[in-house]
Amino acid sequence: MKEIHLSALELSLIVEGGDARDAIDRTVEVAQHIEQLGYKRIWLAEHHNMEFIASSSPAILIGHVAGHTRSIRVGSGGVMLPNHAPLSVAEQFGTLETLYPGRIDLGLGRAPGTDQPTALALRRNNLQTPHHFPGEIRELQAYFSENNRHARVRAFPAEGREVPIYILGSSTESAFLAAEMGLPYAFAAHFAPAHFVRAIEIYRRNFKASKWLEKPYLIACVNVIAADTDEEANELASSMYLMYSGMVTNRRGPLQPPVADMNAYWNDEIQAAVQQMTAYSFIGSKETLAPDLETFIEETGIDELMTTGNIYEQRARLRSYTLLREILSTS
Predict the structure, then answer these.
(1) Mean pLDDT value across the chain
(2) Which one-letter DSSP state was computed for residue 16?
(3) In the prediction, which pLDDT does 123 show?
């Protein structure tokens, strides 16, 4: 198997019977655990107006997680840039880089990470901000650059920090942008698989070397639920399927305990929709996952595998990250 970096995406999901503080504590425990396993980075997502997701403020969570770890890179997966002024983002991440030098990533997305009324509340009635995404990325790059010292508007303590920027995406449009700007590209295949293959082809074919990156660097985020047996892994995965079923039916709730049989919780239509969303999910024992992951990595040529595991029980979730590390270390 091609040697690649391994990382994790965290949404700080609230589980049934838990609360936001519990979700954040679980995220910190995951970060500490995968740091010991040698994972390269952990990213925190941005979501708004979602009662059971505790990651509405990724910059604050990044500081909290970085403060409870020592070496793992911590970043945003991502900051939804249309929701924020680039100057404010530069100041926040410049501060984080000052506190935790060499450990902070800035992943940027152009989606709001929420519904339209909340997007309006965040953007103060300006829904055109996604169209400004490329220009706002360049504005951010300027704030981080030492060359900005003579500008009328400067970002402190961001200036000169050169926090690495990643373009996040779930469509081909983001692939063209990442390629044109010569930036690393992270694709959200864990919930939006339809355009993944096409997007990574576009990114590689159109990539232009830049001062930040000489050749394409591709991160694929996928669902991984590993356990000691296939049966256990499939049962653990039911929590993820219940979560996505809630998304499809607009009946969201906390992450549920696993169930023995999903047939009581979805019909054929909902099942088909969920399975389409989770097409890039790897579920099973080490023996089952190893060949499947090897095929995926070889066929896509990715440089980094970012995983998210929506597992209810924390011990099982940590075990899943351990097994994945063992798979990629021994293959």
Answers:
(1) 94
(2) T
(3) 67
